[in-house]
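Take just one protein record:
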Amino acid sequence: MIFQPYKTALTIALLALSLSACDDGIDIDAHRRGTASDYMIAVANPHAAQAGVNILANGGSAVDAAIAAEMVLTLVEPQSSGIGGGAFLVHFDAGGDGLQTYDGRETAPSYVTGKHFLDTEGKPIQWPDAAFGGRGIGVPGLVRMLGLAHAQHGVLPWSKLFEPAIRLAEDGFQVSPRLAGLLAKDTEMPGVPTSAAYFYPNGRALEAGDILKNPALAKTLRAIADIGPAAFYTGPIAAEIAVLVSKNAPNPSPMSVADINDYQAKQRPAVCAAFMRYRVCGMGPPSSGGILVAQILGILDHFEIEKMPPFSLQSVHLIAEASRLAFADRALYVADDDVVPVPTSGLVHPDYLTERARLINKKQTMPTVTPGRAGQLVWDWSSAPDALKGLSTTHMSVRDSYGNTLSMTASIERAFGAKVTTQGFLLNNQLTDFSFSPEKDGKPVANAPGPGKRPRSTMSPTLVFDETGKVVLAIDSPGGSRIAGYTVKAILGVLAWDMDIANAIAAPNVVSRGGPVEIEIGTSLEALKPKLEAMGHTVSLRIMTSGLHGIHVTENGLVGGADPRREGIVLGK
């Protein structure tokens, strides 16, 4: 099957821009796919890839490389992630510690209640109003999470990992076409003084090719490098964040220094499920991603989808139906497990997945989809999907020379987060991932806001293991609530349909989040639209800008892929 992910004039023009060589001489197009025998990184920007691969070449671990790459992403891909946001990390330690998952999700300040996103009449405010400025900002978790992971799996000194980003921030880098295009479209940041001064010098948006320096970020990173994560969560950095969010940001909203001081990154149990001969493992609550991926693949495992042609009518129908079932469960059950008891083991139990698979008709869509009973004897909560907003995220996959492998997804939520810049970095708007209404139909909503609570996410960093326990795949993507669908597509491509990982990543996206079947516009899958509609599906053709970055561990070495829809590359040796 020949895939045509970029058929429209708009996407062809954008792709042509993104394929130009970056200012350090790396040809992006030539590095969408890579092979290696020793180590590899697949990440969303060439500067970040170069920083990460240099760390690996100097004997660094996968965690070391991820830290170096993410600090660079804070600078060169500020619209997507950074130290002002959060992340989830799934890590396999080949030296004996096995699989661990790390939660660096943002937390709500202590003043937040279930009414946080309600107006004076008790009605939910509009999502854009919630996302802009202080109201949507959660306490950032990325730095603490990376510090925890480094303490357990770092090889090189913490301070050394910040050197590439500090140097690049001081010397400057060329603004990429993607960053410039997003700045040109933004209507809110030009009105925020701290952001306008950096991104809109002399009253105009930065353009592709402009040299951009960020001495303020260099100073911030140097403090974190010298002192450690505590430099971010105490002292001047934390104090400035608290003052900005509470007083000086648009739509200010109370955040105390104590809220920032008290933030803790956490290790969580991994969520794993069988698919074919593999074990697919990901992140548990407060992310719904690991559960979604496990449920969708676990349901599909009942239909021998590996024997179907890739992206055939039958396989797309089954993907959509399995996804609808999984998203129905997500809307009811998944939230911060420290506050709401999520029945994670029940949701991915083989017997439950078999029960859910029996609901699927191979010839027509289910007329209605409702949550199942996932092992709960008593459940008095209401089902409430969230706003399905927020596309600004990044993902990287890393494999080091020791055999350690990680999949990490980081985010500030929507493009440029809350649109508020402090000390050289942007702050997130992750609190808008909460459900805005604290109750529905007289029952509480599991994902309602609350003090210290972590909002539900769909980030789906995933590691896949074979029957011997060896890592065979690291994968995930940005894309808001479509992330799990993008990740499932890539896993199916590589493991069920024996596709090269770069081709699986570039293949057309098809997603269902409980509503219509969404098909990537301008691709060969558009031809399935009338046939799916004949089966009862509602079909929506959409631009679907995934950013999948994956590493496939094969018998012949490492094969990596980077999504042609964004600016990522693969580097290794």
About this structure: The chain has 19 helices and 23 strands. Residues 497 and 569 are 23 Å apart (CA to CA). Residues 313-333 form the longest helix (21 residues).
